[in-house]
Amino acid sequence: MNSRENRFQTCGDQLEILDNEHTEIRRQYIELDDAILQGEGSARILEAAAELAQTMGTHFTHEEEFQETNLIPVFEKQSSTGRATMAEIMMIAQRLQQGEVYAALRLRGLCKGWMHEHMYVENVEFGIASLAFANESDRIRAQI
After folding, report:
1. Which residues, in sequence order, are CB contacts of 83 under 8 Å at separation 6+?
2. Chain centroid to CA 87
3. Domain that includes residue 95, residue range
4. Which long-range contacts (CB under 8 A, 24 or more apart) does 81-85 make?
């Protein structure tokens, strides 16, 4: 396997991890949303929000590593937006540890907007960038 094919395989493995994290974030968002809407109490809401904040933080770290490892071009606007979102998640996580239920509501709103922008819009961009590293037969297989 040449280095280009090896890099694509690694890239594909990393994309699978990121995709699995997206699935977990969606699941945890729904849990938080349900806890809030069904009035499951402050303790459960805080627990669900803390889990979501932790998963999102881990995902941001993995995504940044993916971009650096695979030399994915990141626009300054996208990079600064990601840093600002991560900083807000960290602030929310601190407030959750202090028992502030409002922080869970803020995380819920942030996550909802982020899921749309990131998972549905940027995910297409990552897929295109990843295919650029593939040889022609891998690109054809990916389109099928």
Report:
1. none
2. 14
3. 3-143
4. 85/60, 85/110, 85/114
What crossing angle do the helices spanning 101-114 and 76-97 adopt, rounded to 10°?
160
Entry pTM: 0.74
d(CA 102, CA 107): 9
Question: How far is the first Cα of the chain from the last one, in angstroms, to the nearest whole number?
Answer: 22
107 touches 49 (CB < 8 A): yes
Written as six digits, the tokens of 4 are: 């280009």
Question: What's the CA gap between 121 and 65, in Å, rounded?
Answer: 20
Model pLDDT for residues 11-41, shown as the tens digit of each residue: 678 878 888 999 999 999 999 999 999 999 9
- The DSSP symbol for 65 reads H
CATH number of residue 59's parent domain? 1.20.120
Q: What is d(CA 111, CA 18) in angstroms, rounded to the nearest whole number? A: 16
- Residues 138, 8 contacting (CB under 8 angstroms): yes
- Tell me the residue length of the chain: 144
- What the block records as the tokens of 33 is 């949303």
Q: Are 111 and 52 in contact (CB under 8 A)?
A: yes
